[in-house]
Amino acid sequence: MIGTWTAPLQGGETAEELLLSFDRDRASRLLVLPAWFDEANKLRRFTLEVMRGLDESRIDSFLPDLPGCNESLVPLETQTIADWRAAALEAAEKFAATHVLAVRAGALIAPPQLPGWRYAPQSGPKQLRGMIRARTIAAREEGREESSEALMGEGRNTGLVLAGWPLGAELFRELAVAGAEPSQIQRDIPQSQIGGAGLWLRAEPDHDRAQAAALAGIIASSLGEKPGEPSGEGVA
Questions:
Q1: DSSP per-residue string spanning 97-130
Q2: So which domain of life are we looking at (predicted)?
Q3: How is the beta sheet containing 99-103 ordered, strand by strand?
Q4: Domains in the chain, please, with CATH?
């Protein structure tokens, strides 16, 4: 089901953002925090198919757009990791989430009080390095030379556009040091447990049904549900 939700912004303002959900008012309610930037594009279908698998296993799930992401009308360059953490916490409360599934860099903003899973968690520095590497390669192909060191300095001072994503200076500085906090209640799921190479490594967006089923199955089994068994309930 596609709807909207009201996300908090700086200064007490709010923004109406898109929400994808499978909500049948069941006991297990999963907040889904997707990958970021180009990885979000490559994992979009995968994330949706994981949610479909969870629905078939009698688990509700909620995938909210965060301000500045996906279809949001809020400028990305005004956002910070702190803003997204606040939005994730608001979403968890609004949807009465009992658990969280954070995908890749989404682990950086997972509400710490929620039990759940962090799929192939990605740190901020690794995310930045990959995006900067892609920019320097693109520049080289155009006959220009850009150094990683100079780009890091520019990003910290004034912000930087990486792979088409305009990152503000504050967000850039946060990414340069951000890592997922250790947690006793959020379990890391490495790609090796899913099988195959991560879809974010492919040149173009793609899908792997087996990988989506594997991740949904791990979560369903952890919650005591039988993976992939349709509930027979109507869509809320």
A1: -SEEEEEGGGGGG--TTS-EEEES---HHHHHHH
A2: Bacteria
A3: 2-8, 14-22, 60-64, 29-33, 99-103, 116-119, 186-189
A4: 2-122+181-222 (3.40.50.1820), 124-178 (no CATH)
The first and second tokens of residue 67, run together, are 């301000």
Q: Show the tokens assigned to 60.
A: 């509700």
pLDDT in tens, the chain (236 residues): 899 999 999 889 999 999 999 999 999 999 999 999 999 999 999 999 999 999 999 999 999 999 999 999 999 999 999 999 999 999 999 999 999 999 999 999 999 999 999 999 999 999 999 999 999 998 898 889 899 999 999 999 999 999 899 999 999 999 999 998 899 999 999 999 999 999 999 988 889 999 999 999 999 999 988 776 544 443 33
What tokens does 172 get?
A: 């850039």
Cβ–Cβ under 8 Å, residues 151 and 135: yes
